[in-house]
Amino acid sequence: MSTETPTNGDGETLCAWCGRGPVPPSRGTKPRAYCSRSCVQRAHESRKLRKKLLGAYMKGRAEEAELRGGKSRDDAGKSRDFPGRQAPAKSRDFPKPQVNPGVPRPAVPVTSAPRSKGRRPLLPPAPGVTRETLPLFGDDDTQPGPLDGRADTE
To answer: Where is this region: Disordered (predicted)?
Structure first.
């Protein structure tokens, strides 16, 4: 990318986007490179788009090289993962028993899960049956009243 601003034959600065000239004089310390705000905006959008396209292109090239590198047959004998014998893959599946028609399968005992005694019943108690209730705060003396904890009472 060139940092040099274009000039005409008389040495006047031309717009870096549209090429029209002369560019109005600077109001500060940095010299102007564009003739108007619209040229500044278009140049910014162009740089932004160029950067985005270049990034996408480089990403595509990297993915293509990775895919091409994985399918190469030039180094088929060389594995980068395991230098020696390849380790078997670990699986969560249980090994399947080998079926032999002459040998019966062993019987698996059916056991039920032990019942928990502290479990709450799913249905409410029958009419006339009362359930033991536990107080939330113990005695009535320890339960907070409606005015407890308020500083503006007195």
So the answer is: 1-47, 60-154
Q: What is the Cα Rg of the chain in Å? A: 41
Q: What three-state secondary structure class fits 92?
A: coil
- End-to-end Cα separation, the chain, in angstroms: 79
Residue 69, SS3?
A: helix
Residue 15's Cβ-count burial label (10 Å; 0-12, 13-18, 19+) is buried
Q: How many CB atoms lie within 10 A of CB 84?
A: 6
Model-level pTM greater than 0.85?
Answer: no
**Beta-strand (E) ranges in 27-79?**
none
Task: Retrieve residue 140's tokens.
Answer: 């009535």
Instruction: Name the region of 83 (left: φ>0; alpha: ψ -120 to 50; beta: rest).
Output: alpha
Higher pLDDT pick, 6 / 48: 48
pLDDT, mean over the chain: 73
Q: Is 141 helix (H, G, I), strand (E, B) or coil?
A: coil
Higher pLDDT, 49 or 123: 49
Residue located via tokens 């004089």 = 25
